[in-house]
Amino acid sequence: MRTVAVIGPGRVGGSLALVLQRRGERVHAVAGREGSTSLDAFARLVPDAEVRPLETVADGVDLVLVCTPDDVVGDTARRVAAADGVTEGQRWVHTSGGHGVGVLSPVAAAGGRVAACHPAMTFPDPVAGADQLGGASWAVTAADADLGWAHDLVVDLGGAPVTVHDHDRTLYHAALAVGSNATTAVVTMARDLLLGAGIEDPAAFLGPLVTASAMGGATRGVDALTGPVRRGDAGTVAGHLDELAVSFPEAVGTYVALADLVLLQAVRAGLDPGRADTVRRTLDGHRT
Ligand SMILES: NC(=O)c1ccc[n+]([C@@H]2O[C@H](COP(=O)([O-])OP(=O)(O)OC[C@H]3O[C@@H](n4cnc5c(N)ncnc54)[C@H](OP(=O)(O)O)[C@@H]3O)[C@@H](O)[C@H]2O)c1
């Protein structure tokens, strides 16, 4: 049976370890920052994993999952490789979205096989992450000879592997940052406005609407756009901005920036140029 070590016992490291543990696999060892609370939490979730120093965490395991923050992955690889902690043919995977496989080059130079496997899912905490991971798409980047086992690993973790070329990795990750983090921020702003309008349960309004809007954009692109900017209803837009200027002045700049984006896409979707100009002039009147 495969034996696994985890470096970085946080949200993703804890989630993947839990998924493997639920499959009956052995998570043999874990390394984190000394005295870290996330290391304690990981030990409670995966009690069989031995807590080890970074330099020896990979001893005797087949697979190492590097789940540290993005900026630490390279240093982690360098430190373990420099301590002769990599064995020939050992499989190493990191879960960072923006990095390709180059960041694990010290491991590859020491004889390890390397892959970058990024789950397109949000992991708010280890248990929620493990629960919602099934069916997620994963971006897999590896040399041709390593794609097979990397894809198999993702399937074992309940995911759907998709090969992403190394040179496309940064653009891929920028897309997901917009689709996930920026979307959460925009929905949070909508939630604040609804609470301001006296709506006690904003999720009852936003849940179905945001889900349908997100799926529309993801599947149909600009053809899914609706609303006042898409229709060219400049009077409605002016009303929103006048109200925000009074009730939520801090939201005016973001509303204008988002409306600029909607307007660009509305024109791509076929909005009449004259109507688009009227909306643009309305927005211009509220730029700071
Ligand atoms: N969260 C997501 O939604 C998500 C989704 C997909 C991919 N990812 C990727 O997965 C990776 C991990 O993200 P995360 O959200 O799980 O981060 P996280 O919750 O902050 O976990 C990172 C873990 O690495 C530990 N760590 C920090 N520096 C270390 C070092 N020098 N050596 C060993 N361990 C170290 C942290 O310890 P402390 O707790 O002491 O800081 C923490 O346990 C990142 O590359 C991220 O881009 C995240």
Automatic annotation (TrEMBL):
Organism: Euzebya pacifica
Domain DUF2520: 138-260
Domain of life per record: Bacteria
Pfam families listed in its UniProt record: DUF2520, Rossmann-like
Location of the Putative oxidoreductase/dehydrogenase Rossmann-like domain: 3-119
Gene3D superfamilies: NAD(P)-binding Rossmann-like Domain, ProC-like, C-terminal domain
Annotated protein name in UniProt: Ketopantoate reductase PanG
